[in-house]
């Protein structure tokens, strides 16, 4: 406490006295700290902010104040850092005061040397963020939501962003946005932090008409619905309080609930409820957008020519049928119209469409109401017949052949169509949709090889290799879900200065029962079964995480190259995904390289070019993998925003003895150099190959000469032990021995 001093006349008030009074009367918290992090002075504003009685902060360690910082609001600096090394810093921190309230504040820390001994002291200034400040943050969130909804960002991503931001505004909470479907069941649209058991309990709930009426009368009744009945479950999972509001459209319809659950046993007052109520309006707009997009998606599930389900929609139906309980059987027919290309070429596409429509009407005419019909290709149809076994499946195939025997008049021509029909059966021909479709397609091809108007029933012995692929595809899906894939890393060496250029991330799969599966095998299966994009997405996430882990261990890897399939680059959301990945991890873009294959170049179109350019605009490098093995076009190469090209190992295998291989390699290195691209050569295994590549002007090499692909921890060991220097020294000795 301040010692009473005689009050001097205004003309002679001492500067220290003025300074002290300014600190004492300041509306912002002022804390003076010595070089042992002990509080020497705290003004009333600081004491009130942290909830301490007057004079009780002096003598305490400042760490006691900052130790109360909570998750989502950690201090922007380490208060315990040596006072000699702390530069002026500032940032926002959220802490829990002695009353249990969460306080958000702007904190700045300044160091000064005072007195003849130049002893160091720090002044910490703390300004609490007021309710108006919080409201402005909610407005910012609202504006961000509206901007996101006007873009191509997925609704799920926007909802996740809302929940995360609200959890930041009210720390130690879990936010959840819940939809009310057409059957009045609760469906969680977003709740990243929600315990699974509690989420499952909510999604088991179906609201009654009385519940809907209560919500329409009082939106805050939502707390009763999503908390009161589940309080004991919530408390057992670490949730202690809930603030919720129903979401109502402009026409009065209840469309969902926005809820906030606290992990703290203390009641946080009225601020969480204010946050929830402030978020309800733009959450309502978000749900409306979700419903609109769902409606558009539903419209896009049907083929406009025939009115049948399209390929995407029928795959969902197949998964649904497989998931039904009990002794479930059904037949899947893949139907191809024989000689349809001739009809199209001879009569034109308009008449061809008319012919397809006539055939589809006949197929529909012999199908019962519970059969599922789909147009799965230009001249292919799928029919799913429930509760059907082998004999009945063959009988229906005869009915299908019979329904098209009568001629169809198209463009003044009478044409008698014939069908090639392949049949697969569930569960005999596979446990999943990919298996059934693959078997049906194999059977259809067999039917067409047998002649016109034929049927073939799928048998496992028809194609053992296909069966193996199907088994592998199913195992791969399970392994992806269970995290059984891993990445290994092969060093890339910059031969211009003999340093580490980066590493290439390579997928590896060691199955518990199938053993070690070669990448060439499971990557092909992944492409056939539609899992390759999931592997690519996982590889990006894991590679970025690994860079951060290496950084934390003091290991600097300049860049990691990740292979992506051609399918990724048809997805317009890929650049946004990479941007979020970099932003969330705070990784510099130049430390990530995306490798593309020549097939991307062959399928070059406006969407692909846009995706590639957007990725490059992020600052991420783009590499053309295995250059020269496909149908590369130099004109296309110049149009792509590439930063490097990789020469395939097949050219390097015979580099020492094959003049043609040397000529091609020389040409590629020259092209890369003239286009300003880094040239990387794979498969370098001998010192002679290395020397030839250096003479030809290659920039970067990788191969067994330096290291095989290895797990992350082995790469750490490789780098710590400076194995690169050892390899280069061995190469030098090998050259010397060869010259003797």
Automatic annotation (TrEMBL):
All residue ranges annotated as the PAS domain in the record: 21-66
CDD domains: EAL, GGDEF, PAS
Gene3D superfamilies linked: 3.30.450.40, 3.30.70.270, EAL domain, PAS domain
Domain EAL residue range list: 469-723
Record-annotated GGDEF domain positions: 328-462
PANTHER family noted in UniProt: BIOFILM ARCHITECTURE MAINTENANCE PROTEIN MBAA, DIGUANYLATE CYCLASE DGCP
Full protein name: C-di-GMP phosphodiesterase
Species assigned in the record: Komagataeibacter nataicola
